[in-house]
Design brief:
binds flavin mononucleotide; monooxygenase; LLM class flavin-dependent oxidoreductase; about 400 residues; alpha/beta; TIM Barrel; eight-stranded parallel beta barrel
């Protein structure tokens, strides 16, 4: 297949920004309800959940995210269960700092880390919606919530590392004579930051080990990564690892995948309009207050398709409440698109489908190995492999998603 020279990945040179390794994340689902086929339940289906997390482990994911919302299951308790149901996968606990005193969260995380022999990770959510924060008694404005997160991070790290007792009289927290605290299994626990506000970048760049994004067009994410790096460099600290999240839609051919994508967008849009799926009930249909969702909607209003495989209609029809931008195509096209993001510096890739359990299994079988193979090839030869050149997806001249999907 002839590929125009401007197609990213069509030459052999590995760009200097490229990450040399990648690890995969997928969110854990507690029951079979999906946006495609919502089931009116908020509960845990234990047999399903057990199967889900074991599937993730067997499929080769490295981490699983346990999300948090005021009406969700408690992410800590679920993370502890993940630890006991699996051997290798690392639970990422989503924590909102308003929900517990930082020293208590440090203790919970250290306990989880000991119980999983060093697998705990924490993802700090400062809160993107005032009404949702108020449901649990948090009335701070978002900038103040981020300032609190900054103090929270400082205290987590001190609780894990100080060898003597210490006192703290800060802006948000005050205590005397704490410690030494319960220690993690390893030296420390990775701290990730979610959010796209200016404050999220400041705190993430200066204090986080990981900075996370929802899937954005390559040019935009490249600029955002540079922004995180510049803040970390100015603070003279190691650059955070970069996490990027997608909702892939794959099938045997690009044409089948685009047909499926159009069908899915219709179904999940109808689910959203009915308010029939968990988290969407909390977020609602008003203009989102969180910058991450605002950005996703803005990208969606400008174009449906970006780069090799990024598709925004799934965000548009769900008010971008949560990770909602898709990658569409064959496993090869989607793997090549993931490598495009690795090329701009992402080294943690979160993928979760709309047909959640079946997709987790399929990605493990058909997508993860292709990405890992490309990185192994680069490691062994110092050169790019052929994955990106051979699977141009929407970079192909004349590409037309509507025509492929049979919508025109
Ligand atoms: C990868 C990722 C995972 C997230 N997980 C959660 C979650 O579990 N619960 C939640 O309320 N918000 C979650 N968020 C949303 C944001 O972190 C949240 O909206 C943020 O606190 C404020 O957003 P803003 O800075 O973009 O305005 C997640 C965001 C990202 C990027």
């Amino acid at each position: 297949m002839s590929v125009p020279t401007q197609t990213p990945g069509s030459d052999r040179v590995v760009p200097p920004t490229a990450a040399r390794r990648v690890e995969f994340i997928s969110l854990s689902h507690l029951n079979p309800s999906t946006e495609l086929e919502p089931i009116p339940t908020r509960g845990i289906d234990l047999a399903y959940f057990r199967r889900y997390v074991r599937t993730l482990e067997e499929a080769g994911y490295d981490y699983t995210l346990l999300p948090y919302g005021s009406s969700s299951a408690d992410s800590f308790v679920v993370a502890s269960a993940v630890g006991q149901l699996t051997e290798r996968i690392r639970p990422i606990v989503a924590v909102r700092p308003n929900t517990a005193f930082p020293l208590v969260v440090a203790q919970q995380l250290a306990t989880l880390d000991q119980l999983t022999e060093g697998r705990a990770v924490v993802h700090l959510i400062s809160g993107g919606n005032d009404a949702e924060q108020a449901r649990q008694g948090d009335y701070l404005a978002k900038e103040r919530r981020y300032a609190r997160t900054s103090e929270f991070i400082e205290l987590l790290r001190r609780a894990w590392t100080e060898t003597e007792s210490f006192s703290h009289h800060g802006e948000f927290y005050r205590f005397d004579g704490f410690g030494p605290g319960f220690r993690p299994y390893g030296d420390t626990i990775p701290i990730s930051i979610g959010g796209q506000s200016d404050e999220a970048f400041e705190i993430g760049g200066r204090q986080a080990d990981v900075f996370s994004f929802w899937g954005e067009p390559l040019a935009d994410i490249r600029a955002q990564i540079e922004r995180v790096h510049a803040i970390a460099d100015a603070a003279d600290r190691p650059r955070p690892r970069i996490w990027v999240t997608f909702r892939p839609i794959i099938d045997r051919t690009d044409q089948l995948a685009w047909r499926k994508a159009y069908d899915y967008a219709e179904k999940i849009g109808a689910t959203f309009q009915k308010g029939a799926y968990g988290r969407q009930q909390l977020i609602g249909k008003d203009a989102p207050q969180n910058v991450g969702s605002q950005r996703a909607l803005e990208f969606a209003s400008r174009s449906e398709v970006y780069d090799r495989a990024l598709w925004t209609r799934t965000a548009a029809v769900t008010n971008a409440g949560g990770a909602s931008t898709a990658l569409v195509g064959t496993p090869e096209t989607v793997a090549a698109a993931i490598v495009d993001y690795i090329d701009v510096g992402a080294d943690l890739v979160s993928i979760r489908g709309y047909d959640t359990l079946a997709d987790a299994r399929d990605y493990g079988r058909y997508v993860l190995p292709l990405v890992r193979q490309e990185l192994a090839h680069r490691e062994a030869t110092g050169q790019r492999g052929t994955l990106q050149a051979d699977h141009p997806g929407a970079f192909a001249p004349g590409f037309d998603a509507d025509a492929l999907a049979g919508a025109r």
